Amino acid sequence: MVRAEKYGSLRPESKDGVIMITADIDEKNALRIMRELEWLEYDSSTSRILIFLGSSGGEFAASWVVYHTMKKCNKPIEVRCCFAHSAAVLILAGGTKGRRFIYQLHLNKQIWVHRANTRRQQKGLLKLISYPLLMACIVWYNRSLSEAIGRPMKRIAEDTKNNTHLSAGGAVAYGFADDILPFEQEALPLDIEKFQLVNKETGDIYKSI
Fold first, then answer.
1. What whole-number percentage of the chain has pLDDT above 90?
2. Is residue 205 domain-resident?
3. Judging by beta carbons within 10 Å of its beta carbon (0-12, 13-18, 19+), is residue 27 exposed, middle or buried?
4. Short-list 173, 168, 14, CA closest to 80
5. Which pLDDT value is given to residue 122?
6. What is the CA 106 to chain-centroid distance, rounded?
7. Is residue 207 domain-resident?
8. Residues 6+ apart with CB under 8 A from 94
9. CA distances from 59 to 22, 34, 94 (A)
């Protein structure tokens, strides 16, 4: 597990550009995240981009666009993840290698990868395109994950098809994250007493250990 002595303070620093992602990643949120990424990249007062991630997923196409925006950034992008399900896993994997962290929580399902739900995807960015193009989007998603974590695309496709669930340790072993962070409430850029991190799909409330 990563400690402050290894990476310095776990709290955001004044030169960090912070982006919070705690909602589903749909077309609207993807555009917001892209604008923030592009603004922070050209902001001379920030030395790195710090993404706090806790999302139950969203639209695969929207996450894929955010992922490629992250890859085009010249500044290091550090991702600190509480949980990432479905399309949100691509955001975690898209962080700068060596700077993708996941918090240690009381859960065996912090990471969840699965195949795209076609009905859900057609409500967003893909609602006007054909089914074959939707299938192509799934291939792009699997290929992007494969490139990001260095696992064969065939293995990624099998695991997404089989609904794979991973704990923090499992996420590091698989390659989605590089190391585990201790969950320190004071390190989060929010008022923890007024904010609860809730997984909308399961109803779980994520707390420190």
1. 31
2. no
3. middle
4. 168
5. 46
6. 19
7. no
8. 66, 67, 70, 71, 77, 79, 144, 148
9. 14, 15, 16
Strand pairing of 164-166 and 111-113?
Answer: antiparallel
Residue 83 lies in a domain: yes
- What pLDDT sits at residue 11? 52
Q: How open is the CA angle 64-23-202, to the nearest 5 degrees? A: 105
User: Which of the 8 DSSP states describes residue 123?
Assistant: T
Q: Can you give the pLDDT at residue 116?
A: 67
Q: What share of the chain is helix, strand, coil (3-state, %, to 5)?
A: 40, 20, 40
Supply 191's token pair. 């008022």
**Nearest partner of 175 among 48, 65, 59, 89, judged by Cα:** 89
> Tell me, what's the pLDDT at 197?
46
Tokens of 101: 């962290």
The CATH number of whichever domain residue 108 belongs to comes to 3.90.226.10
Contact 171, 110 (CB under 8 A): yes
Residue 123 placed within a domain: yes
| Structural domain containing residue 165 | 4-184
Q: Provide the number of structural domains found in the chain.
A: 1
Kindly give, in sequence order, each residue whose CB lies less than 8 Å from that of residue 196, ignoring residues fewer than 6 positions away: 205
Whole-model pTM over 0.70: yes
Question: Which residues in the chain land under pLDDT 50?
Answer: 1-10, 119-126, 128, 186, 190-201, 203-209
